[in-house]
Amino acid sequence: MTSKVRWGVLGVANIAVKKVIPAMQRGDWSEVRAIASRDLEKAQQAAELLGIPKAYGSYEELLQDSELEAVYNPLPNHLHLPWSIKAAEAGKHVLCEKPIGLSVEEARKLIESRDRTGVKIEEAFMVRTHPQWLTALQIIKSGRIGTVRAVVGCFSYFNRELANIRNILDYGGGGLMDIGCYMIYFSRLIFGEEPRRVLGLIDRDAETRTDILTSAILDFPAGQSIFTCSTQLVPYQRVQILGTQGRIEVEIPVNAPPDRPCRILVDTGADLFGGGVEVIESELCDQYTIQGDLFSRSIRENTEPPIPLESSVATMAVIEAVFRSAESDKWERP
C-alpha cells in the first residue's frame, strides 16, 4: 500500500472538525497530521479531540511545515483565494471549500497559481464523486429516461444569525454562493455543457444585504434548468431530472448522510401515484472520505483531480451572471 498523503487543515471550521477531518481520517489515502487556528488554544483543542499530532497558532506556521503535502482550506469564502494561493506557493496541494473564490477573476488567479507552482488545486464539490450521482449520471447516459430536457432544483435552510459568516456580505455570504452553487453545478453536470444565458431573481435581507431568496433559469443548448435557493426557508433539498421517457429524483442531492444509504427514484411516468417508480439505494459511504481519498490518490499517482479548476471557473461565471441579471432585469450571458 502506498503511503498516505499527509494533510494540514487551515482553521477549525465546523465543517472541518465535525465532518471532513473525521471522514478523511477513515480514508485509505489520507492522513491529517496538523491543524491551525489563529487561536492556538482552539487548534490544540481540535487536535486533541480528533487525535491530530500537531497544532499551530497561525496558518503561516502550518504552511511552513515541510512534512505536510496537502492542505484543506475550509476558511470563510473571502479567505479561500488568498490562503489557497499561499498554500500553493508553499508547495502544498490544495483542496478548497466551495465557492473556490468570490468571482471569476479570483478563480482564474487560482488557475494561474496552480500552473505556476505545479501543485494540484481542487474545489471541494464532494457531491461529484458520491455513488448516488455516479448512478444518476450512468442512468442518463444509458438513455433510460430518454433525452434530458429539464432540471429542477431546490435547496434551502433557515439561518437568521447576523454574526454567522453565511450572512456577512463582505465574507461572500448569501444563498447563491453557499448553496445555489450546487444547483448550478448539478445543471452543468447533467447537461454536460454550459448555459447560453441566465435569468435571475434575488430577494435580499434588509439588514445583511445578502441574498436570502434566489431563483434562476439557466438556458442550455439541450434544455432548461430552474432552481430556487434560500437561507431563510424551511430546510429542504431536491433535484429532479426530467427526460422525454422518464424522470430521476435525487432525494438528498448535497448533504448525503454517511450513516444510511441515499435513494434516487427513477420514474417511468406510468402513473402519478408512483406506480412506475424504481427506488435505487446507494451503498453506505461518506462522501468526504471519498473526496479526500480521490484527491490524495491523484497526488500519489500524479493524475488529474476529479474536478478540474476550469469547471470551477465556469460555475463561478454562471453565479456572476445570475447576480448581474437580478440587477439588470435582463438575460445575461456567463
Q: If you had to describe this structure to a student in words, what would you say it looks like?
A:
With 334 residues, the protein is α/β, with parallel strands linked by helices. It folds into 2 domains: 5-125, NAD(P)-binding Rossmann-like Domain (Rossmann fold, 3-Layer(aba) Sandwich), CATH 3.40.50.720; 131-284 and 316-328, Dihydrodipicolinate Reductase, domain 2 (2-Layer Sandwich). The protein has helices at residues 14-25, 40-50, 59-63, 80-89, 104-117, 131-142, 175-191, 287-300, 309-328, and strands at 5-10, 30-36, 54-56, 70-73, 93-96, 121-123, 148-158, 197-204, 211-220, 223-230, 232-243, 247-250, 263-267, 277-281. A hairpin with a 3-residue loop joins β11 and β12 (247-250). The longest helix is centred in the C-terminal third of the chain and has 20 residues, at 309-328.
